[in-house]
Amino acid sequence: MRFSLNRRRFSDLSEQEIVALAISSEEDDARIYRSYAERLRADFPATATVFDGMAAEEDSHRQRLVDLHRDRFGDVIPLIRREHVAGYYARRPVWLIENLGLDRIRAEAEAMERDAERFYLEAAKRTSDAATRKLLGDLAAAEAGHQNKAEKLEQHHLTEDARSSEEEDAHRKFILTWVQPGLAGLMDGSVSTLAPIFATAFATQDTWTTFLVGLAASVGAGISMGFTEAASDDGQLSGRGSPIKRGFASGIMTTVGGLGHALPYLIPDFWTATITAFVVVFIELWAIAWIQNKYMDTPFFRAALQVVLGGALVFAAGVLIGSG
């Protein structure tokens, strides 16, 4: 809070400080575009080239602003950045964006250009110098036209075949990194915990004890599956992506799958809890079949037969053991 109170208001900035802020902002944006390019270069080289071109554009804007500052105010540029100005548009950390999908990164780049255009329009209103106002207006127009520039770069570097190939690679990577390990975790958590949970339920008919067993089984299975997935493949040769991402996807979905039919046992009445758990299990198994059909191209009825049959066998084993 103290940091935000110490920020300068945009309306209080001098013309020199506005130009200095524009210089640092252009420098930051160029770095962000180059970071995107490096992040995408291995898997999406054509899009990386587009971002290289956009970074070069930001460099040219920065140089024009530096030349203007030198002519009007001298060589010493004040140190002022986005975070020093209250209400100034902020950039999301690169590490937060770069792990998202290709379309999300492109959308973020478009938002960056819109923010920059608004800044230059407001900055132009704050200056009385004709040359400075003209340059700021030109840069606002340039930022507005960056979408056209990006489209031209894409037409040159990102042909229809290249775009199709990149989108295919992005989809494949999404499947291998998130869907496949997440699905494996959901199946393991939903099916493997059926036996201990329902065995405990029918053996004790104590809902709280059943919940504790289900919680322990779900969390334990999630930790085990997460570490197993992360340690099984570093993703370098298989192309399955970050082992940490896969481990989280598998571990979290395993835990969710088990907790789905453990949570109903927070209901004090045994039969109400058990019937609710039956319904949840049914929903879980059909959800697994739907995911297999949508993302893994498994025929729906075959996926449903496999999952429901397997789940029914494990469920029956738990009930029989618990009843005995």
Structural description of this entry:
The chain has 324 residues and is mostly helical. It folds into two domains: 2-158, Ferritin, core subunit, four-helix bundle (Ferritin, Up-down Bundle); 165-323, no CATH class. Helix content is 78%, strand content 1%. It is built from 13 helices and two strands. The protein has helices at 2-5, 15-41, 45-73, 94-97, 102-125, 130-144, 146-157, 160-192, 194-204, 207-232, 243-260, 270-295, 300-323, and strands at 8-9, 85-86. It has a two-stranded parallel ribbon with strand order 1-2. α2 runs antiparallel to α3 and α5 (102-125) runs antiparallel to α6. The protein starts with a helix and ends with a helix. The model has no long low-confidence stretch (mean pLDDT 81). It is found in: Endomembrane system. Residues 17-153 form the Rubrerythrin diiron-binding domain.
SSE topology:
Elements: H1 2-5, E1 8-9, H2 15-41, H3 45-73, E2 85-86, H4 94-97, H5 102-125, H6 130-144, H7 146-157, H8 160-192, H9 194-204, H10 207-232, H11 243-260, H12 270-295, H13 300-323
Parallel strand pairs: 1-2
Subcellular location: Endomembrane system
Transmembrane segments: 182-202, 208-227, 248-267, 273-291, 303-322
Domain Rubrerythrin diiron-binding: 17-153
